[in-house]
Amino acid sequence: MQKTWIGLLLLPLFLWLSANAQEGCAIRIQGTVKSNLGKPLADVSIRLDKNRAATTDGVGQFLFSKICAGNYRFAVTHLGYHGQEVSLSITKDTTLVFELLADAIHLQDVEIIGQQQGSLSSSVHRLTAQELQESRGKTLAESLTAISGVSTVGMGNSIVKPVINGLHSNRILIMNNGIRQEGQQWGVEHAPEVDPFLADRLEVVKGAQGVRYGADALGGVVLVKPKAIDTSKPFGGEIDLQGRSNGRGGVVNASLEGAIKKMPALGWRLQASAKKLGDYETPHYVVGNTGVEELNYSAAVDYKRDKNTFELFYSHFGTTLGIFTGAHIGTVADIEARIQNGRPFETYDFTYNIGAPRQKVSHDLAKASWKHRFDADRSIDVQYGYQRNHRREYDVRRVEADDLPMADMVLSTQSLDVVLKDGNSSIGIQSLVQINNNTPGTGTTPIIPNFDSYNLGVFGIHQFHIGRLHAEAGARYDFKYLDVAGYRYRRDAVNEDGSVEQYLLTDTRKFHNASGTVGVLYHFSPQWSLKSNIGLAWRAPSANELYSDGVHHGSATYELGNQNLRSEKGLKWMSSLIRSSSRMQFTADVYAQLLYDYIYAQPNPDSVRQTIRGTFPLFVYEQHDALFYGVDLRFSYQFAKDLHYDVNASLLRARNISRDTYLPYIPADRVQHGISWNLFGESQPHSYLKVAHRFVAQQHRYEPNSDYAAPPPAYHLVDFVAAKQFQLNTAHQLNLLLAVDNVFNTEYKDYMDRLRYFTHQMGRNVSLKISYHF
């Protein structure tokens, strides 16, 4: 197997060397493709002859090299635009500019069909440029809440992860620059190890996406896409500086990119960001030990030559996160009193110190990819990824020093994907190998055991296009092998001194399942479109759901696994009605998902676990059939030339249909809307004033006495943004943004916050963001 992987990785190098060994002509043809509005177009196909083709990059540029003198016919095509054919006589190095006219009837397809990994019938939502600007410096999950149907779950304000239509953690895939993000994402308190500053585009694909992306994509996919490297100039980049009042800290980000003059086909980028925040504050008190420290950096190189594109990418994400000290409690009476009080008994002074309990996480990701175009319609993509996730969780120790972690886990992941595209068809094979090791010497029994996991999947997708009707169908098969070894507690054997005996657990599991998808996209008119998709996806139970038995120090809970769990299988239907015009945008996503053997952690208010570390709420993994259904609405309207209104609304219902009861930790109904006034018209789209309102209802759909505390009341929050854009010259731009979150300093709790038992959410926060592009 290892020799096969090495052979596949060396194949691109062999082809490149073979191509360069052939003698040819030396003419270069380069150019740019843009729309009739002057916008550069990415992913445009330019066919030079039967066997030569190129694709534009993120800034609309393409390149042919080693061209012989002669007469050529250029065919330029891009979905959503009228094609163009031009015949030219080429005798020397030539620069071309193509301008394509938009085809209105297919504008809705452009963002979906034109992407290799996309699905034409799925509901795809992207953050706008304004929403990206406002979210800079926030966590990935916080940024995505601007999309209807997306909320968060986590602990406090720094440990949060995205929720799509009620599903999160191992049911949501995050694709970080094309690589499936693999860390210890099984816990609600394990935030994604992704730096949002890497992303030029943040997208959410709703619906079961198991065919293209593989097992675990029951709820949807988050796409984190960096922008293409700008090779039109030797040097460029951006600098971001931010300061915020709540936490009394800030964020800095810098990136540099360009091209080497002697090698214009080679692009490079360097990027780094850092964050430093102290304890966050509610309207009336400081939440002790909730500071954040973060240092991230990345590098990328891409090289285009003839029909080949090579890319190397590396990123490091490193963070230290404090966990509220008051969540770690000594006795049963104390935990009951604190939950009933709803806020800390202690008074904390603000500090930047991050003591125990805390998390320290580092994540390294490396990617190597090669794409070869046989012609305009056929290509092969080979992508290798390596990830190393190192998670350490610290608690207050009674004997040893607090700098010795209670949990020390290293998860290594290797992946290899090969995808062949031929016209409207794609077939692929994906493999993934994971090894999880608990570092010895912590003095505690790991909450999850050591394991090796091997995954293999094959898939095929075909698209049909008949006038205004577009359809697609796909199928996939996955196999997973899990080999586990680790020590567990023997609950029925307590020693005379009160200690609990341990035993060595060894286990192997095999999981396999098929996935499928069928969907259509139909254009009623240039303004109205309908998408409908039904997809089957699945996931195997994760190691923590099967084998956890101990204190989860990251969440201050005691988790108990269930070795009898079966694979989850989800059938999700989603239909989207879309209305798009120059003044109005409207999208309604209606969905229903039946989850067989749905796995969830049920809080047990009748029981807590007392350990030498303290007393903790008990969460036990259970499995039942469940039904999720709801609607997500997105509406925006241009009242006047400079006045814009937008609103998002999400309503979700979920039930345990095996027991005919409600499920725990389901997001409540929510609405967020705002009105923006553009100060200087279309010439400065990033200069505006905005007032926004967020409303989250109380979650009434829960089982009484099934949780440690009833869901908190509904809340209203008001936010304000003022932004100004300064165009210094054609290449230099300065953006200033002043944001006030929770303007009226409202005290509130969110049902999806695990710390709501003990404390409130963040109060007013004023932030100033400065962004300089050059």
Please give a structural write-up.
The chain has 7 helices and 40 strands. The chain has 2 domains: 25-102, Carboxypeptidase-like, regulatory domain (Immunoglobulin-like), CATH 2.60.40.1120; 111-773, Maltoporin, Chain A. The protein has a 22-stranded antiparallel barrel. The longest helix is centred in the N-terminal third of the chain and has 20 residues, at 2-21. It has 774 residues and is mainly beta. A hairpin with a 4-residue loop joins strand 16 (236-244) and strand 17 (249-260). This is Iron complex outermembrane receptor protein. Keywords: Cell outer membrane, Membrane, Receptor, Signal, TonB box, Transmembrane, Transmembrane beta strand, Transport. Residues 119-221 form the TonB-dependent receptor plug domain. Residues 1-21 form the signal peptide. Residues 329-743 form the TonB-dependent receptor-like beta-barrel domain.
